[in-house]
Protein: DegT/DnrJ/EryC1/StrS family aminotransferase
Amino acid sequence: MGIAFIDLQAQRARIADKVDAAIARVLEHGRFIMGPEVSEFEEKMSAFSGARHSISCANGTEALALPLMAWELRTKDAVFCPSFTFTATAEVVPWLGASPVFVDIDPETYNMDPASLEAAIEEVKAKGELNPKAVIAVDLFGQPADYPAIKAVCEKHGLKLISDSAQGFGCTIDGKHPIEWADVVTTSFFPAKPLGCYGDGGAIQTNDQEVADLLDSLRIHGKASQADMDAAGYSGHEAKYLNPRIGMNSRLDTIQAAILLEKIAIFAEEIELREKVARRYNAGLEGHVLQVPFVKEGYQSVWAQYTIEVENREAVQKKLSEQGIPSAVYYPVPMHEQAPYRRFPKAPGGLPVTEAKKKTVVSLPMHPYLDEDTQDRVIEAVKTAV
Ligand SMILES: *Cc1c(COP(=O)(O)O)cnc(C)c1O
Structure:
């Protein structure tokens, strides 16, 4: 049997009956757009991470764009983000005409380096061409970014903080979710993410009522909120035909919400199962590879990826593949080296850690249902390959 990099069928085998019944219920009631499962799931999400508001949307990319729209980002505004991340983190910034500014990462966690962030903000301020507005920190591979330090930098400079938790939904620092620090937390329900649906999906969390109302409006074509209706004295008509702002169409399908309701019910347990796999991998691989994942004291990763560092990565991957072990590289070309992003500013001194790590990182099979025999096969194969 081939080994799966992420085995979604193993999870499906566990909850297939419930998921099929949930989908059947939606087919029956027929409210495919903003049906009752959508708000039910949003409430479950809020309860899960202690956020006051959860606003679902079409995918994790638009989850990042919507708060930037709510804050009215414009040309000449700067948004600081890592380069060592999935494209979407930076992609949404030029959508609004604003400029990403790329920041280096910590060599142990691969997450945003607060010192590089601080230096980048100082330099942008000194140059005076762009206005620093926001920071997007990423919970790469599932580990929370250093929110206490990043939040302090944001407060010092008066910047908004987004947690791009597409890979990290459920992660914590001393038991607290990123919403404890971030103005807005975004996530993705792309099938391969730790909490994934069976298609595209995403969500935004915030504790700020005003921002939540704006996000709810923006995701549905800038439809009127109750406050907008009252202010306009516009009663007796549907809110969606009064549009006080320019929004977009970014809704979570009811069917996906119904699936997610079943998945979030077992999510906490799945995080524990992933943690067990990671610990066992660590024990088997420590000392045999350049670096096994380092998780900071008090930090809980949700292990979207289990990523090690090796020399001669290509040869190692080839040997793994010959033994039926899939592997993947996140990310071979960091954002600041991709053609459309090269023109955007970088932290002073460039991004030496990002540029070093892109050559050595490789991710191994990881999911909650990876049994011990399969883990041992992966561990042995890696040991031989290196
Ligand atoms: C997957 C991902 C996204 C985008 O999510 P989609 O749902 O695919 O749009 C954004 N940021 C990070 C870090 C991701 O890994």
Notes: The two ends are 23 Å apart (CA to CA).
